[in-house]
Fold these 2 entries.
Entry 1:
Amino acid sequence: MNVLVIALLVVGLVFFTGGGVGILRFPDFFTRLHPAGKLDTLGSLLMMLAVAIYNLEHFSWEALLTSLKIMLIVLFIFLSSPTATHSIVDAGIRAGMVPWRKETPEEKAE
Amino acid sequence: MQYVFLYAGLYLCILMLLSLYRAVFGPTVLDRLVGVNAIGSKTVVLLILIGLIYGRVDMFVDISMAYAMLNFIAVLAASRYFQKRKGL
């Protein structure tokens, strides 16, 4: 059981690492939203799942209720994170920001 | 097993520093908003890990749920507030 918990924690941390590096390294604000919106959601799911499984190691009804609450937080994050990301994109589009694109060779020559 | 959660929490703190760089030095306001949102979603996980280290998960779950809702409402309100401004 402990092996499963540790594996889920480590995979979740790997996803969080990808999100953090993506937020640092991407060139534009629209592209930065992509790791921030997706990888944080999946990392939260995996780490919360690990904690919920670890919490159920000694079964009791209180522990079951706590694990259900943890999964409820995950459900709320799955609803709220795409909504927040969409609202930030909407603000950027309405403020008139142009999405980043790679320079063509003709533009680079100028 | 406590040490696994302790080191996972410490690593999450280091990852929050990466997002904090984007939140402090971001070129536009919306970049800062992205960084703050990423820090908030990591904090929700970190609070539950702190609860496991202290052995009081039943209490920290409620705090974490409240923090998730607060983070969502804060990002939504800030992005609604900034969307009318030209040239952020």
Entry 2:
Amino acid sequence: MSTLEFSHVTKRYRVRGAGEMLALDDVSFTLTSGQTLALVGQSGSGKSTIAKIITQLERATSGDVLLDGTPIPVRGRGLRRYRQQVRMVFQDPFASLNPYHTIRHHIERPLRLDKVVPPDEVDAEVIRLLERVRLDPAATVDRRPHELSGGQRQRVAIARALASRPALLVADEPVSMLDVSIRLGVLNLLADLQRESDLGVLYITHDLATARHFSDRIMVLRHGVVVEEGPADDVILRPQHDYTRALRDASPDPDAHFAGSSASPRS
Amino acid sequence: MTSDNVLTISGFSVVYDVEPPVEAVRDVSLEVRRGEILGLAGESGCGKTTLAYGVQRLLRPPAVITGGSAVFHDAQGGDVDLNQLTDEQIRAFRWNKASMVFQGAMNALNPVISIGKQLADVFTAHRPGMSRAERTEECGALLDMVGVGRDRLRSFPHELSGGMRQRVMIAMALALRPQLMIMDEPTTALDVLVQREILQQISDLRHEFGFSVVFITHDLPLLLEISDRIAVMREGQLVELDTAENIYRNAQHEYTRRLLRSFPSLTGSRGDFVRRGDGDVREGAA
């Protein structure tokens, strides 16, 4: 059981010639293993800044980020150990895998670097990880990224993230670059893995519909401020804040659009 | 007498002449009615953009139009078979009668030329008789029309947000009052709020000027809301064409139904997709 806590986190970026830009303004939330928290908001709302601070690619200007009550280390072995616990899946599966290396190499690396398993068990662990993300190991392990489809590549990225047996996973728009018919497959996979391994998942997205169906809670961010946070269905179906309502009303919703006219809805 | 259709596409086929040849568009026939929004839906590689480019004769080798025709029915009378036009004729036709908002259009503006000047280019090319003052006035009016405002005429693209740049592209497509506007993923890169504003703008302008829109996107829920009719493409072929409501309620083709199931409902009940999506299917390498 792990808990990541953002406590009054503020982040300012210095902008040349324009002073400072307030990217996050007093943001507090908790991400616990076994739970999926969706982070929604427009571009520029601070979603990715939160991801960067969690993974320590950026540091908070003020406020605390705590893993199980201890501040996250900013360098050295401690930071490395922290990063084994908190892994990231990026938006673009075409850019996040190295075209020169085989799939085996991608997944082996964290296993060896973090000494997750003894060296003679690495091969078996690679196979096991590929199976966990529902890829056929024999057909993928010695391939290079360009030989796989976008969905397969994103599964490889997920397998790599899982290699160090993290407690928390940050998924930044993990399906927005995939073809629509395979998006749900990848989201279902994340949901399955979350249950199997009691993972905590931070699902960053601009898509309210998948945020609602694949998360326990939703947090709405606007200009770096959390405007609303609550159980997924409540936030979408009974939004408390005008901004949340505006986001929801702007999202396509054919069911509501065609409701009222006759005949049965689609099966 | 003018036809009820603005465009009739029959048996249209495009092949990418590579080894092995790729049949990108296969025997597609459809009509675009005057004043309607026709949604063109499908996943990447289904041929929807190739079809649009083919109709406008914008394809370059190795793409070859191997068959079929696209006939434009001018409201001023006369049918034009686009494949039969000379290069000079098609150049005059494009933008004048049928314009296009390209995919990633907001990045299609030239970064070192003011948007006023880029808009004026359209008139310089197609309305050589116009004076500079008339051009400036017309460009200002266009920017007002799409909600950017004429005070932005001297702005450069980087000074505008993505949504504003997209509006500039729409203004440009609108400049010569075409009868048909083909929009390829015009709002895909934008936030839902900005997307909604732009869709509203397109809808208002369409009512004002009465042009038809072919709206290309993979976002089927969006098309269901804004289109009169929807065409679904897969692997170069047209699999289904019907009114938005029929597609929603009573899709005939299994692929259309699968596409519909790929989008969870925003406010409806939780679908069984959460468990039954293809997440359990093992994906082998291609």
